[in-house]
Amino acid sequence: MTTIAVIHTGPVTVLPIKNQLSELIADARVINIMDDSLLNDVRTAGHLTPEVASRIYSYMSNAQAMGADIILNACSSVGEATDALRDLIRTPIVKIDESMAEEASAIGSRIGVVATVSTTLDPTVRLIRRKAEERGRTVDVTERIAEGAFEALLSGDGALHDEILKRTIIELADQVDVVVLAQVSMARLVPALGELRVPVLSSPRSGVEAVKRALAAL
């Protein structure tokens, strides 16, 4: 049986990714490893720290020891730690947002990125720019923080989270060719957006599709 280990930095990514794995890779054994202190420490520091990267390494090492065929990093805020760890972990690692960034860079030159956590914004923008450079393209990235939305979600007020985020996305959609939602926790809003002028990309499905492709290539 295929075993997939998912590294989470908070509880909000567990269910969206679980749902996508159940749909797209239904016969897989899934191991969820969740440490909500990781994202808290990144937010407190304002950036990815060596200590957080070291803990990510320990969790991925544990996943490898548990026989995982592939590891999925579920958090964009610590995604850059994954880049460094790929040379240290034998098990293939997929970043939840990498496929989304590739798609966004292919759609248009004006890319909007929405985040509810400020520490997710910079690494997501850097990833998009890198994917555009790999395609030989130049992109203009417009950044937006949906202020207060993440705090509302953590406090259990999903309605307020959705209201703040929806308003931010709609305003940004008038200025860009594609909108990128930088966090898994934001994907829940996509069905409620209705028809917008531009596509809105979220990472859970494209990230799990990337896992499926990686497994097929093993």
TrEMBL record:
GO terms for molecular function: amino-acid racemase activity. InterPro entries: Asp/Glu/hydantoin_racemase (IPR015942), Iso_Racemase_Enz_sf (IPR053714). It holds the Pfam family Asp_Glu_race. Belongs to the HyuE racemase family. This is Asp/Glu racemase. The lineage of its organism: Bacteria, Pseudomonadati, Pseudomonadota, Betaproteobacteria, Burkholderiales.
